[in-house]
Amino acid sequence: MFILAERQNPKRAFLFVSTVLGRHIPVTPSNHRDALWALTEKTQTLLLDGPIFVMGYAETAVGIGAGIFDCLRQKLPERKIGYLHTTRHVMNDAIPWFTIVEGHSHAQDHNIMRPDESYCESGQQSTLVLVDDETTTGNTFAQLAEGLYVQGARFGRIILVTLTDWSDDRARARVEAVTSGTKTVAVSLMSGSWIWKQDESAKLPNLPAVAAAMCPPWEPDSCSSFSSPRNGLKGGEMSDGAHLLSTLPVPPIGDRDKRILVIGTGEHVWQPFLYAEAVEQVSPETRQVGFIATTRSPILSGPAIEHKITFPDHFGIGLDMYLHNVEPDDWDRIVLFTETTIEGVHPILRRALGKGHIVDKDGQVFEMMNI
To answer: Please, which of 10, 53, 209, 315 could form a disulfide with 204 given CB 3.0 to 4.6 Å?
Structure first.
């Protein structure tokens, strides 16, 4: 389920790197989907009879939040189900509904955009499903639940969904405490607890230095064909992987393309995952397909992070981003998706990958080395 890694952060110097998430280690799409289905089955039995509102966390849990939403809509096509994730990126002239702060994170601020009411139907028969890759203290879950309640979004039940739950029931208890006792339950693929003692003689790592912005400033575009659902998503608006595979002008997969890697960027992971899943389903017995995403998470090299590409961020913010555990020579075909313009994939990253194609925010396809 995970490998322990050391991260470049003085507040918490370790990280559980998931082997099924597809953020720091390439994952086979079918294995990722299996994890989604397993969590969905645990979640489905706990739902109330009314509408369902699913939320994920930027950036790591944007994809699994969308995945739980997707599995639930397939299981319950007659139900009203909406999805929204927190975001680091706010549209021009837009005002967040509210914000929360993730204290131990390398990127602390989470913006929550106000969804259409049809995406988020609250009430005593409605269920709020909060999805994260892992929980330890429950603080982030509690902040989001409390923020929703302060804004008047009340639910009859709250379900906390994680790949790994280390909170020893603290997450559930804290969410109930800030939502006036709303019935809260937690599901995960693994649960337990951990204890660690800091070596007082160890030198604390510094956060990565602020980098110069080397890509054009970017803001989310509501008209973009390929974008993360930071303004909300309903069941009928879900993308289809087979449609993406058939309509994108990416050169056809040839007989020599036995190993194919699909890369998402930042919060833009769900559509790239669906594309990777569709590629795998074409010939699962003869091809190896991997999926991974670029990240802001500063993890030190070691057993969990055997290879790291460091490059300027896609968004012109002024920070380093990373692509972990990707050795380009291990792949015959690489397809990278970005919700920015093509200039958001910096030459450092393009040169490091050395081959493949880029799909930009409008679905245009560029050959990596001919830009």
So the answer is: 10
Which of 306, 291, 322 has the alpha carbon at shortest distance from 35?
291
pLDDT tens string 235-287: 777 778 988 888 898 988 888 889 999 999 999 999 999 999 999 998 878 88
Task: Return the structure tokens found at 330.
Answer: 């291990």
What would the 3-class secondary structure string for 197-241 be? CCCCCCCCCCCCCCCCCCCCCCCCCCCCCCCCCCCCEEHHHCCCH
pLDDT digits 0-9 by tens, 39-89: 999 999 999 999 999 999 999 999 999 999 999 999 999 999 999 999 999
Q: Are 269 and 36 in contact (CB under 8 A)?
A: no
Q: From 338, 341, 345, select the one nearest 368 (Cα to Cα).
A: 345
- Give how far Cα 213 sits from Cα of 88, 207, 314, Å: 16, 17, 9
* Residue owning tokens 């991997």: 290
CA trace torsion 190, 178, 15, 34 (10° rounding): 40
Q: What is the pTM of this model?
A: 0.95
Secondary structure E strands in the chain: 2-6, 14-18, 52-56, 81-85, 98-101, 109-112, 123-135, 155-165, 183-191, 233-234, 259-265, 288-294, 308-312, 320-324, 333-337, 357-359, 365-367
DSSP string, 111-161: EEPPPPTTT---EEEEEEEEEEEEESSSHHHHHHHHHHHHTT--EEEEEEE
Q: Pick from 15, 33, 13, 12: which is nearest to 24 by CA?
A: 15
Instruction: Give the dihedral sign, CA 113/67/266/254.
Output: negative
